[in-house]
Every structure is written in structure tokens, then in C-alpha cells.
Specification:
The protein has 455 residues and is of the alpha/beta class. The chain has twelve helices and 23 strands. It binds thymidine-5'-diphosphate and magnesium ion (MG).
Length: 455
């Protein structure tokens, strides 16, 4: 039997050290090192997987067969889109998210919907009865989905060998433990070892494995920077708890782009896919309100219309407050500075609050133009007409810069019945024809926008 050795692991980034240290030299966090006893078991009690050996020999690139990777259609259009067209066979996918956001619901729903293939859902967190209750809520019949409540990987692989599923889902990686290592479940060395067993399994058998992982307080995957390196795809499930909307984002993808986004709504009967996000992101008002401007933004390859709301008021205590939800607050400050300098609006003594509707976080700079229009509309208390929308980036000298995918934005706005869209003058040359049923209003400077909007 190998001698047990003890190693200290940083619980935040997974770095290791032979002795305790107060501050992690790798991630800079304080007091995160915890001792873990590592005892490598003898090869006898290794899982059957470990005994299978494949002998690799070097091959020329030219001699490697280039097959198109085969993908499993998950029957969930949002998930398919985020994965880049379906689940690649033999891939290892990590789904992260805060507790209670709906990871288990999403994965169970996918498992239940896949009727043509055998799915094994391994749960270390909930009992079979709890899963049954959840599946009754989701309410899908005739499934080919097996539940296994087990946390020891050796037992899990035994069951997998018998069942031979075509997809394995593990809820969650933090609850698993392996015999090969002596430290407790959820510790860095356990997580790393369990994940690597599933990685080997996926590569050997070509069965895709989805691992669910928890997220720490500060929003990173618990423990596991190491996990991110190991897996092929990292998905993040997020959303404001108070809103019903959930967003599935791709952070890393070896088989597709990372810019795609899936949107769901949490309902009583599970998660509903939202194929047309603009409809939920726009509030349907009867009258015009001041402080609201609508932007045509693009997330991934998908255009959507989103409402930006601003509230400008006199600063009660001298120091003005600037606060934004769903939009970078430094960018808001920059836009306010541009407004102040270029247009002479005195916002210096005003509180400014900015909110992006629907609990979405927007990184697309094309929303700038809508932001400044919402701020000014609230400041002047003049509403922006509901049938107008915006797509343009604002530069430091107050110029309206062109944005990418302008045709898609215009098409989306036209589809939703907007009558006018303000775009950068410099975008005009990229637009091929007058095929859209919407009036394009090219602008070059912020002053021009205000003149056209507020007269
Ligand atoms: P869950 O999938 O357990 O979250 P996670 O696995 O990420 O911790 O989601 C639980 C939440 O979702 C819970 O607060 C209740 C809610 N929910 C619904 O609103 N409708 C449903 O049909 C289900 C199954 C859950
Ligand atoms: Mg769960």
C-alpha cells in the first residue's frame, strides 16, 4: 500500500503546496489552504475503467481520419444552440450555476425529453423520490431515463457498465467521491480525481457526460479552475432570482463558439425555452413614459430588442449617486461624462440610476445610444416615442460609431414593428438595400440625436 501523503490545496483555485501558506501565490486569496490526505489505493480496487489500457502511438496529422464530430440533438433548441449544434459525443460538459437557479431542473428535463436514447441521471444530492416529484412537475411521459442515487464513482461505473447509457448526467460533481483518494467529498483532490475518471470514461466510450457544478459566493465555479481545464465545454446557468428568466451562457467550448446564449423561463412545470427573447424583454405599454429607450442589441448571433430605463433626479446629499443594473457602471460614468462635455447637459449634481430590463447583463456597446437617450429623456422628462429604437456606440468625443451586425438589428426591429431606428451614419454603407420596412435615421453626433428626438 502506498504511503499516505498530505498536500495542502487552495480551495479557491486548486493550487497545491507541500506546506500550509497564508496567502495563495497563484490566486492571491487569503486563508484558503486546507490539508488533504491523499492515499492512493492499490490497483486492485480501481474501477474497471482504469484497467483498460489503450496503447497510443504517434501518427502523422495527415493520416488522422477527419470525421465530422457527431452530435446528439438534445431536443432543447436553446441548449443545442449554446453547445454549437448539439451535444458532441464523447465530450465532457460542465454546467455551473448558483444553488437554486435550476441546473437540476434543466438537466432532468433534458434527460426526460430524450426518449430515443438511454440516459443515466446520477444524483448525489437528492433521493430518487425527490427526483420523481420533480419529474412529475415537469410532466413528461414515456421516458428512457434512469436515476441512480449514488456517490461512490466505483459503484457508479459498475452500474454504467451494466446499463450502457448513451448519455450520463452527474448532479453534482462536488458530491462524488472515489476510493482512490482518502480526502472528503467536495475537496479539491476528490473533485479532480472524479472528474478525470468521467473524462476518461467519456473519451473511451464516446458517451457524452454532463457534470453539474456549484458556484461559490463570488460567482466562480467552486474549487475548480482545474475542472474548467479538464472539460470540453463550460456552460453557466444564471439569472436574477427575482425574475423568472434564466440564461444559459457558454464560457468555453472546444466544439463551437462561446458567444451563444440560451434563454429560458422558469415556470411551475419546469423551464420553458424562449425562442423570441424580444417579446419578453420589452414591456408592452399603452402610453409613452420618460426615461425609457429601446435598443437593438446582439447577444451571440442573436439580435434582440431590450429596454433600457433611466431615472435622473437631484442629488439630495451633495454627492451624486450613479448606479446601474445589467450595464457596466464605468461605462455609464463615461457616457455621462460625454453628455456633460459634448452637449452641455448638467448631470454633475444629479443622481443617475440605470436598469436593463429583464435582469439581463449587456456587454454589447451598441446599447450606448439607447442609454444616453434614456438618461436625457428622464432628465428632461420627455418620453421617447415607443416606435423608435437605437443601435449605436458612443465614442468619447460624442461621435456615434458604427456597430457590427447592423442588418440583423434592423431586421429584428422591423420584424417587431418599430417605425424608426437611429443608427450611426458610418453604418449606412454596410447596408445593401432599402429592403427593410423601417425608417433608418443616420446620425453622426450625440447633439444631432437630441435635436432629432427632442427638437
Ligand atoms: P433546481 O433545479 O433544484 O436548482 P439547482 O439544481 O440549480 O440548485 O431549481 C430549484 C428551483 O426551481 C426551486 O426554487 C423551484 C424552482 N422550480 C420551479 O419553479 N418549477 C419547476 O417546475 C421546478 C422543477 C422547480
Ligand atoms: Mg440541484
Amino acid at each position: 500500500m502506498a504511503k499516505p501523503s498530505s498536500v495542502f490545496f487552495c480551495q479557491s483555485c486548486g493550487a497545491q503546496s507541500p506546506k500550509w501558506i497564508g496567502r495563495c501565490p497563484s490566486c492571491g486569496e487569503w486563508n484558503t489552504y486546507i490539508e488533504e490526505i491523499i492515499q492512493r489505493g492499490s490497483s486492485k480496487n480501481k474501477s474497471p475503467l482504469h484497467q483498460r489500457q489503450i496503447l497510443s502511438v504517434p501518427v502523422r496529422v495527415a493520416e488522422i481520419q477527419s470525421g465530422k464530430e457527431s452530435r446528439i440533438n438534445t431536443l432543447d433548441q436553446e441548449l443545442n444552440r449554446v453547445l454549437g449544434g448539439g451535444l458532441v459525443t464523447g465530450s465532457l460538459v460542465l454546467v455551473g450555476g448558483e444553488p437554486g437557479i435550476g441546473k437540476s431542473t434543466l438537466m432532468l428535463q433534458i434527460a426526460l425529453n430524450l426518449r430515443n436514447i438511454k440516459v443515466l441521471y446520477i444524483t448525489g444530492e437528492e433521493s430518487e423520490q425527490q427526483i420523481k416529484m420533480r419529474s412529475d412537475r415537469i410532466n413528461t411521459k414515456d421516458q428512457n431515463c434512469f436515476i441512480l442515487a449514488e456517490t461512490l464513482t466505483q459503484n457508479i461505473f459498475q452500474q454504467i457498465e451494466q446499463l450502457e447509457p448513451a448519455l450520463v448526467i452527474v448532479d453534482s460533481i462536488q458530491t462524488l467521491h472515489t476510493d482512490l483518494i482518502d480526502s472528503s467529498a467536495g475537496s479539491i483532490s476528490q473533485i479532480r480525481e472524479c472528474a478525470s475518471e468521467f473524462q476518461k470514461y467519456a473519451k473511451l466510450t464516446n458517451v457524452p457526460v454532463i457534470l453539474i457544478g456549484h458556484i461559490t459566493k463570488d460567482g466562480t465555479l467552486a474549487g475548480p479552475k482545474i475542472l474548467e481545464h479538464m472539460v470540453d465545454t463550460v456552460l453557466q446557468f444564471e439569472g436574477e432570482r427575482n425574475y423568472g428568466y434564466r440564461i444559459l451562457r457558454c464560457i468555453k467550448n472546444r466544439f463551437g463558439s462561446t458567444s451563444e446564449l440560451g434563454i429560458y423561463e422558469m415556470q411551475n412545470s419546469g423551464l420553458r425555452e424562449i425562442a423570441n427573447p424580444s417579446e419578453i424583454l420589452l414591456s408592452h405599454r399603452d402610453e409613452n413614459l420618460s426615461g425609457v429607450a429601446i435598443s437593438a442589441m446582439v447577444e451571440g448571433l442573436r439580435p434582440m430588442m431590450i429596454e433600457t430605463q433611466a431615472l435622473v433626479g437631484s442629488a439630495a446629499y451633495g454627492t451624486p449617486q450613479r448606479s446601474s443594473t445589467g450595464f457596466d457602471s464605468r461605462r455609464l460614468n463615461m457616457l455621462l461624462a460625454v453628455l456633460e462635455k459634448r452637449s452641455g447637459f448638467k448631470l454633475g449634481m444629479k443622481d443617475v440610476f440605470l436598469n436593463i430590463a429583464g435582469g439581463l447583463h449587456v456587454d454589447d456597446t451598441a446599447i450606448d445610444l439607447a442609454v444616453i437617450c434614456a438618461v436625457l429623456s428622464s432628465n428632461e422628462d420627455i418620453p421617447v416615442d415607443q416606435n423608435i429604437c437605437f443601435a449605436g456606440e458612443v465614442g468619447l468625443s460624442g461621435e456615434i460609431r458604427s456597430v457590427n451586425r447592423i442588418e440583423q438589428r434592423i431586421a429584428e426591429a422591423a420584424k417587431l414593428g418599430f417605425e424608426q431606428i437611429f443608427i450611426s451614419k458610418y453604418n449606412l454603407k454596410n447596408i445593401t438595400s432599402d429592403k427593410y420596412n423601417i425608417r433608418l435615421i443616420p446620425v453622426a453626433k450625440v447633439e444631432e440625436v437630441f435635436k432629432k428626438l427632442f427638437g
